[in-house]
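Input/output pair, single chain:
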Amino acid sequence: MCGNTLGVPVGVTAVSGDVTAVPGGAVEIRPARPDDEEGIRRFLGGLSPRTQARRFFAGMGRPSAGFVRTLLAVNERRDALLAVHGNLLVGHAMSYRGEETDVEIAVVVGDEWQGMGLGSRLVRTLMRRAESRGARTVGMDVLGDNREVLSMVRRAWPEATMRVSSGTVEVTAKVLR
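Output:
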C-alpha cells in the first residue's frame, strides 16, 4: 500500500504478542524503534524495483539517514510498525496525520513475504492504534496497477471512495473497526 499516516506517542497501544505463524516460523508486528535503522536500510535495499516503486512511487538508492529516521518515527503525529521474522525485518507500515483525512497510511511487505496476509495485519494494527487516538478517516495512495492492494482495500473498506488521479488511486475510508 502506498500513502501516508497519523502519529501515535511512544508507548501507546503496544502490539506485543501480535504474532502469526508463517512457513519457517512466526512474524511479530511491533512498534518501530530508533535502533531499527540498520534493519530498515537492509529491508529497503532488498525490495525489488517493482515493490520499491509501488510503495515509494519511484526506485531508490541507498536511503538517507533522515529518510530512515522518518520511516521509524513514532511521536504525536506519526506511527510506525514493523513485521519481524526473528531478526529479519519483513514489512513496514507507517501512518501520519493527514490533511484531508485523520490519518494517511503507507505499507510495504518484502517481496518473498507478500501474499501471506502481513500487509493486512499491519494495516489493521495501524488502524487500531490510530482509532485509539481519535482517527475516524483514513487515506492512502495506491498505484493504479497494484491490483492486489486495490482488491484488499475493496475487501477491507467496501464503501471506500476511490478517485483516480495521474495513475494513482486516492482512497478515502472510515477507519477499520
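The first strand starts at residue 19 and ends at 22. The longest helix spans residues 118-132.
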